[in-house]
């Protein structure tokens, strides 16, 4: 049986991106990815083409430019619908790359937070256009995964906003009712609502339920030119978020955050110890070995950076791609392994030059 996964993410620039990726018959799985952009903060989500190409039939396309004339709004509801994380900081110390956690603490957090990855019960229904809600424990499990990934990257946890949860829930209903994804759903869509449209223009969107969606966002198949879903989750500005889900579609609010993590740069995998299981948290594909490692920054210009990855002084070749601006960070690059895969028990030394400030860190892959 073949399963199609759809993801959409928003960016800060007003344009539209459509991308499609195919994992091949050996996996029996395809992914189609469309990205449509919305202005950060109080700006507009854009009403360009949302990326509705058939999944699995080629490389990312260019899409049409969005008009950016739909107000995305902020959704300033009260925060706090789920586990906000422990706020202890990540296992590494960020810029210096001298991870100060040990493999036990990293693995304990990883295994504890991922002990229950089940989806939950949706109280709504497409019949009657009832958005309903996720049960509270389900939303908390999804938020826990978001904060686990941020903790590993030495970023503060985020909470949810009641207002953004409601708009993300209305967004998930619309996607489910129309069996499609769009950041600018037309008003003739089944179960269209202003709240759902605002959520759609402000969120990462997935064609799967809310817990699994977080892992999909972090691997980010089909987004070779943006890696937008991962970058939003690892954004300095994220939070509060909003999470909404039906049984088969989900939305995670990302833009207009008031977070102020203030990190000069964030890498994935991050400095310090990193669970081998996070290289590919899914049950198919090659994970980060396929989509690549990333470095993102709001302060540094990574566009002309030179990068080396070594193990015990021996080069590990990587292909560098300068990513589109505005997806959760001002600047970002991917480092895609060429002829090698990350292995547990190995420490990878990363050096970046030509970005305005030197970046140097070690990633130690540990088996959890």
TrEMBL record:
Residues 28-107 are annotated as: Disordered. This is SCP domain-containing protein. Gene3D superfamilies: CAP. InterPro entries: CAP_dom, CAP_sf. Residues 41-86 have a biased composition (Acidic residues). It comes from Enhygromyxa salina. Residues 143-248 form the SCP domain.
């Amino acid at each position: 049986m073949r399963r199609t996964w759809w993801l959409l993410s928003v960016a800060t620039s007003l344009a539209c991106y459509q991308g499609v990726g195919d994992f091949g018959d050996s996996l029996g799985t395809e992914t189609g990815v469309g990205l449509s952009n919305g202005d950060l903060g109080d700006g507009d989500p854009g009403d360009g083409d949302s990326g509705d190409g058939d999944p699995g039939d080629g490389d990312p396309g260019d899409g049409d430019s969005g008009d950016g004339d739909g107000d995305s709004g902020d959704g300033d509801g009260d925060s706090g619908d789920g586990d906000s994380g422990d706020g202890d900081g990540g296992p590494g110390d960020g810029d210096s790359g001298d991870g100060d956690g040990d493999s036990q603490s990293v693995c304990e957090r990883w295994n504890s937070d991922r002990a229950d990855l089940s989806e939950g019960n949706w109280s709504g229904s497409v019949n009657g256009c009832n958005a309903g809600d996720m049960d509270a424990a389900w939303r908390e499990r999804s938020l826990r995964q978001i904060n686990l990934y941020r903790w590993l990257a030495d970023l503060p946890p985020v909470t949810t906003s009641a207002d953004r949860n409601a708009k993300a829930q209305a967004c998930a209903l619309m996607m489910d009712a129309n069996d499609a994804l769009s950041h600018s759903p037309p008003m003739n869509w089944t179960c269209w609502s202003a709240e759902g449209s605002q959520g759609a223009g402000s969120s990462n969107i997935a064609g799967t339920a809310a817990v699994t969606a977080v892992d999909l966002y972090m691997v980010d198949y089909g987004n070779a030119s943006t890696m937008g879903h991962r970058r939003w989750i690892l954004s300095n500005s994220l939070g509060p978020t909003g999470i909404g889900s039906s049984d088969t579609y989900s939305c995670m609010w990302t833009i207009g955050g008031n977070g102020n993590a203030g990190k000069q740069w964030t890498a994935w995998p991050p400095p310090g110890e990193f669970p081998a299981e996070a290289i590919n948290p899914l049950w198919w594909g090659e994970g980060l070995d396929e989509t690549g490692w990333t470095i993102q920054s709001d302060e540094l210009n990574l566009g002309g950076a030179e990068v080396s990855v070594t193990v015990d002084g021996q080069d590990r070749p990587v292909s560098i791609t300068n990513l589109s601006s505005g997806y959760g960070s001002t600047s970002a690059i991917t480092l895609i392994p060429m002829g090698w895969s990350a292995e547990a028990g190995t420490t990878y030394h990363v050096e970046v030059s030509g970005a305005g400030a030197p970046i140097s860190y070690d990633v130690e892959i540990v088996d959890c």
